[in-house]
Design brief:
Elements lengths: L1 E2 L3 H9 L9 E4 L14 H9 L2 E3 L10 H8 L2 H11 L3 E5 L1 E2 L6 H4 L5 H9 L4 E3 L2 E3 L19 H5 L3 E5 L6 H9 L5 E3 L2 H8 L3
Parallel strand pairs: 1-2, 1-4, 2-3, 4-8, 8-9
Antiparallel strand pairs: 5-6, 6-7
Length: about 200
Protein backbone atom coordinates (compact mmCIF):
# COMPACT_ATOMS: atom_id res chain seq x y z
CA UNK A 1 0.00 0.00 0.00
CA UNK A 2 1.54 3.28 -1.14
CA UNK A 3 0.39 6.55 0.39
CA UNK A 4 0.95 10.23 -0.19
CA UNK A 5 0.88 13.01 2.38
CA UNK A 6 -1.68 15.75 2.98
CA UNK A 7 -4.75 16.57 5.02
CA UNK A 8 -7.21 14.31 3.19
CA UNK A 9 -4.98 11.24 3.39
CA UNK A 10 -4.19 12.05 7.02
CA UNK A 11 -7.91 12.24 7.85
CA UNK A 12 -8.57 8.96 6.02
CA UNK A 13 -5.81 7.10 7.83
CA UNK A 14 -6.72 8.47 11.23
CA UNK A 15 -10.36 7.48 10.68
CA UNK A 16 -9.46 3.95 9.53
CA UNK A 17 -10.72 1.36 11.98
CA UNK A 18 -10.65 -1.88 9.99
CA UNK A 19 -8.77 -5.15 10.17
CA UNK A 20 -5.91 -5.17 12.64
CA UNK A 21 -3.63 -7.62 10.85
CA UNK A 22 -2.92 -7.17 7.15
CA UNK A 23 -0.21 -9.04 5.27
CA UNK A 24 1.21 -5.96 3.61
CA UNK A 25 3.67 -3.07 3.75
CA UNK A 26 2.86 0.61 3.93
CA UNK A 27 5.26 2.71 1.87
CA UNK A 28 5.27 6.43 1.30
CA UNK A 29 5.23 7.44 -2.36
CA UNK A 30 7.17 10.66 -1.74
CA UNK A 31 9.93 11.90 0.46
CA UNK A 32 9.33 14.39 3.27
CA UNK A 33 11.24 15.80 6.20
CA UNK A 34 9.56 16.91 9.41
CA UNK A 35 10.20 20.60 8.72
CA UNK A 36 8.54 20.57 5.30
CA UNK A 37 4.90 19.86 6.14
CA UNK A 38 2.48 20.73 8.91
CA UNK A 39 0.73 17.40 8.46
CA UNK A 40 1.33 13.89 7.33
CA UNK A 41 5.00 13.00 7.69
CA UNK A 42 4.26 10.11 10.10
CA UNK A 43 1.21 8.74 8.27
CA UNK A 44 2.87 5.56 7.02
CA UNK A 45 3.82 4.60 10.57
CA UNK A 46 0.34 5.44 11.90
CA UNK A 47 -1.33 3.22 9.29
CA UNK A 48 1.24 0.45 9.68
CA UNK A 49 0.59 0.40 13.42
CA UNK A 50 -3.15 0.11 12.80
CA UNK A 51 -2.80 -2.90 10.51
CA UNK A 52 0.26 -4.41 12.20
CA UNK A 53 2.69 -4.33 9.30
CA UNK A 54 5.97 -2.75 8.21
CA UNK A 55 6.22 0.94 7.33
CA UNK A 56 8.70 2.30 4.81
CA UNK A 57 9.58 5.94 4.20
CA UNK A 58 11.76 7.47 1.51
CA UNK A 59 14.78 8.77 3.46
CA UNK A 60 14.86 12.17 1.81
CA UNK A 61 13.24 15.59 1.93
CA UNK A 62 10.30 16.10 -0.40
CA UNK A 63 11.60 19.23 -2.11
CA UNK A 64 15.24 19.87 -2.92
CA UNK A 65 16.95 23.12 -3.96
CA UNK A 66 17.53 22.10 -7.58
CA UNK A 67 17.41 19.14 -9.97
CA UNK A 68 21.11 18.32 -9.53
CA UNK A 69 20.71 17.78 -5.78
CA UNK A 70 17.53 15.81 -6.39
CA UNK A 71 19.24 13.57 -8.95
CA UNK A 72 22.08 12.89 -6.52
CA UNK A 73 19.67 11.98 -3.72
CA UNK A 74 17.71 9.70 -6.07
CA UNK A 75 20.90 7.69 -6.67
CA UNK A 76 21.31 6.87 -2.98
CA UNK A 77 20.82 3.14 -2.44
CA UNK A 78 18.32 3.51 0.41
CA UNK A 79 16.24 6.00 -1.58
CA UNK A 80 16.31 3.79 -4.68
CA UNK A 81 15.24 0.75 -2.67
CA UNK A 82 12.23 2.48 -1.13
CA UNK A 83 11.21 4.10 -4.42
CA UNK A 84 11.32 0.68 -6.08
CA UNK A 85 9.00 -0.70 -3.39
CA UNK A 86 6.71 2.31 -3.85
CA UNK A 87 6.57 1.83 -7.63
CA UNK A 88 5.43 -1.76 -7.11
CA UNK A 89 2.59 -0.95 -4.73
CA UNK A 90 -0.68 -2.77 -5.43
CA UNK A 91 -2.81 0.09 -4.07
CA UNK A 92 -2.14 3.82 -3.88
CA UNK A 93 -3.93 6.25 -1.57
CA UNK A 94 -3.27 9.85 -2.58
CA UNK A 95 -4.45 13.37 -2.02
CA UNK A 96 -4.62 15.88 -4.87
CA UNK A 97 -3.41 19.43 -4.47
CA UNK A 98 -5.08 22.45 -5.99
CA UNK A 99 -3.49 25.55 -7.47
CA UNK A 100 -6.07 27.72 -5.76
CA UNK A 101 -3.93 29.90 -3.44
CA UNK A 102 -6.54 29.68 -0.69
CA UNK A 103 -6.24 25.87 -0.54
CA UNK A 104 -2.76 24.97 -1.82
CA UNK A 105 -0.91 22.67 0.61
CA UNK A 106 2.46 23.50 -0.92
CA UNK A 107 1.79 27.23 -0.59
CA UNK A 108 0.46 26.84 2.95
CA UNK A 109 3.64 25.04 3.94
CA UNK A 110 5.69 27.86 2.36
CA UNK A 111 7.42 25.56 -0.11
CA UNK A 112 6.58 27.96 -2.94
CA UNK A 113 5.49 31.58 -3.25
CA UNK A 114 2.21 32.92 -4.60
CA UNK A 115 4.17 34.22 -7.61
CA UNK A 116 5.48 30.71 -8.35
CA UNK A 117 2.00 29.24 -7.96
CA UNK A 118 0.67 31.72 -10.50
CA UNK A 119 3.53 30.83 -12.87
CA UNK A 120 2.57 27.16 -12.61
CA UNK A 121 -1.01 28.01 -13.51
CA UNK A 122 0.15 30.11 -16.46
CA UNK A 123 2.00 27.05 -17.77
CA UNK A 124 -1.15 24.94 -17.66
CA UNK A 125 -0.85 23.19 -14.29
CA UNK A 126 -4.23 22.36 -12.75
CA UNK A 127 -3.25 20.10 -9.86
CA UNK A 128 -0.49 18.23 -8.09
CA UNK A 129 -0.02 14.78 -6.65
CA UNK A 130 3.06 13.83 -4.62
CA UNK A 131 4.26 17.37 -5.33
CA UNK A 132 4.28 16.73 -9.08
CA UNK A 133 2.19 19.25 -11.00
CA UNK A 134 0.15 18.15 -14.00
CA UNK A 135 -2.06 19.62 -16.71
CA UNK A 136 -5.71 18.98 -17.52
CA UNK A 137 -4.75 15.92 -19.57
CA UNK A 138 -2.72 14.50 -16.69
CA UNK A 139 0.66 15.15 -18.28
CA UNK A 140 3.54 16.57 -16.22
CA UNK A 141 3.49 20.36 -16.29
CA UNK A 142 6.56 21.91 -17.92
CA UNK A 143 7.93 23.52 -14.77
CA UNK A 144 11.33 23.31 -13.09
CA UNK A 145 9.67 22.61 -9.74
CA UNK A 146 8.76 19.05 -10.81
CA UNK A 147 12.47 18.29 -11.24
CA UNK A 148 13.09 19.08 -7.56
CA UNK A 149 10.57 16.59 -6.15
CA UNK A 150 11.58 13.26 -4.59
CA UNK A 151 8.73 10.88 -5.39
CA UNK A 152 7.72 8.18 -7.81
CA UNK A 153 6.92 9.64 -11.23
CA UNK A 154 3.44 10.32 -12.61
CA UNK A 155 4.03 7.48 -15.06
CA UNK A 156 4.88 5.13 -12.19
CA UNK A 157 1.75 6.25 -10.34
CA UNK A 158 -0.42 5.53 -13.37
CA UNK A 159 0.91 1.96 -13.47
CA UNK A 160 -0.28 1.09 -9.96
CA UNK A 161 -3.35 -1.14 -10.35
CA UNK A 162 -5.61 0.75 -7.95
CA UNK A 163 -5.06 4.41 -7.09
CA UNK A 164 -7.61 6.01 -4.78
CA UNK A 165 -7.80 9.81 -4.75
CA UNK A 166 -9.28 11.41 -1.65
CA UNK A 167 -10.15 14.99 -2.55
CA UNK A 168 -13.23 17.02 -1.66
CA UNK A 169 -14.50 20.49 -2.44
CA UNK A 170 -15.17 22.49 -5.59
CA UNK A 171 -11.54 23.64 -5.58
CA UNK A 172 -10.48 20.03 -6.23
CA UNK A 173 -12.55 19.57 -9.42
CA UNK A 174 -9.78 20.59 -11.83
CA UNK A 175 -7.14 18.49 -10.03
CA UNK A 176 -9.54 15.53 -10.13
CA UNK A 177 -10.35 16.00 -13.81
CA UNK A 178 -6.67 16.18 -14.74
CA UNK A 179 -5.82 13.11 -12.68
CA UNK A 180 -8.73 11.14 -14.18
CA UNK A 181 -7.93 12.21 -17.76
CA UNK A 182 -4.32 11.19 -17.31
CA UNK A 183 -5.12 7.83 -15.74
CA UNK A 184 -3.29 8.83 -12.57
CA UNK A 185 -6.21 7.66 -10.40
CA UNK A 186 -9.06 5.22 -10.99
CA UNK A 187 -11.11 5.54 -7.80
CA UNK A 188 -12.31 8.86 -6.40
CA UNK A 189 -13.56 9.59 -2.90
CA UNK A 190 -15.10 13.05 -2.84
CA UNK A 191 -18.13 15.04 -1.73
CA UNK A 192 -21.45 15.66 -3.49
CA UNK A 193 -20.59 19.17 -4.72
CA UNK A 194 -17.39 18.04 -6.41
CA UNK A 195 -19.08 14.89 -7.72
CA UNK A 196 -21.82 16.92 -9.43
CA UNK A 197 -19.22 19.13 -11.09
CA UNK A 198 -17.23 16.10 -12.25
CA UNK A 199 -20.32 14.49 -13.76
CA UNK A 200 -21.06 17.69 -15.68
CA UNK A 201 -17.73 17.38 -17.52
CA UNK A 202 -17.05 14.94 -20.38
Amino acid sequence: LGISLGLSVAATIRAYNGSKKVNSKVVRLQGAAEFELMEGTNLSQILANKIDCEAMMIPSPWMLPNSDVRDTIMQEQSVQKTLETAKNADIGLVGLGTLDPAYSTILRNKLISTRELNEFRAKGAVGEVLGLHYTMDGAPADIEFNDRVVAISLDDLSKIDTVIAVAAGIQKVDPLLGAIHGGLVNIVVTDSDAARELLAHP
